[in-house]
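quick one before i forget lol
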Amino acid sequence: MTGDTETEPFPTWFSASSFTHRIAVDILQNGPISRVSLARRFGLTQGAVSRITSDLAHWGVIETAGLLPTSKEEQTEDPRTNQDKTEGDFSETGAARTRLRAGRPQQALVIRHDAKTFIGVNLHGATAMAVAVDLACQPVGMPHQKEIQHRGPGQVTEVLTGLVRDCMAEIRQAGLPEPSGLGISLGGRAAGNRVVTYAPFLQWSEHVDLAAAMEKACGLPCLVFNDLDALALYEGWFGAGIGLDRFVLITIGSGVGYSLAEHGMPVSSSDEGYGLIGHQLVDPDGPTCYLGHRGCAQCLTTGSLVEQYSRKIGRAATVEQFVHDLDQDLPQANTLLNLTGFRLGVLIASVANVAVPEKILIGGETSYLMKRCGESIRKGIDSYRHSQMAEVPLQIIDNDWNRWAQAPAARAIASYLMAPDEADGPQTRYV
């Protein structure tokens, strides 16, 4: 198949107002939570929230889980303005006309995490990993992994189908509902979350409608995502990015990746998935990359680190030897690590200056090494930030390949739970 295609419909759990979908997501991310807290967070009357949560409970989306501890204050509707508002007419007026009185225990609302299941599959180089999850993106059973011997579309589809069937069997064994959807992630770009148009690790020369192939083979609705954007959504919904209005995820390992997320959703554009941040200048005296750029962010990749260290010690090295020499506190290894940390800091500063995130997350295969050179990273950041600017909050997240497999399942969950016009996240437009 050639060319981009329109996004195919992916099933949603229910059809309701945007507030209803948003409140369901909020309960998923922040539950157990009270109706009072939801009313305050969304600027709605408690009556409106009660009707919304009653609908969600009727549809089997949420349930009550006992009582929350008594709070000091309880927000209640002012009886002078206790007017019934129909769904779809939710102004902040009613919520603003409230009073505070002594609180009483509130019912705790939680998502029914066992009501739905999903399957996530991540393609990383020649390895595919799949995992079944519940609605809270918690694994059901163990992850399943298989090497891809032949990278043709048909052979890849066959391997993925086998992994999906293993996950489906595990779901049935656990007595949980059949999967509601399948999410697949890979390094590259998938037009319309279906057609793979760029996948350097798979070396496909033509566009491949991987979603259609998997739907035919497995009988499940399928979406295909860029792996970094999928991981960014996972962190925004279930991980280190919960509650942040804007954060950035940078990964270093076999490549260099970047994703900007707003309100838990990765910002999408027509140019995503090509790994362009990997060629951002970080050191004018750095090594030359495979495209001829001197000192670009490719010097942060695992392959470049190994090449640089081999030159330093005068013989062929491996990443394992580099880590071993760091453990032995060898000067050559420490020098390269601190230089790499400084270069990463320069990249972080460039991103922070432009995207202005609340936090930057650092992940990827070699991110754990950056925990050893925090001072060098800060020096790199400070070199390209004004002295009066706030410090950039950083968090290095552990690189767990299971999480990379959970991530596309998280994106499928988002598409299933959100209003259709919001499921693709904020859009970046170019004119």
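fyi Residues 117-233+403-417 form a domain with the Nucleotidyltransferase; domain 5 fold (CATH 3.30.420.40).
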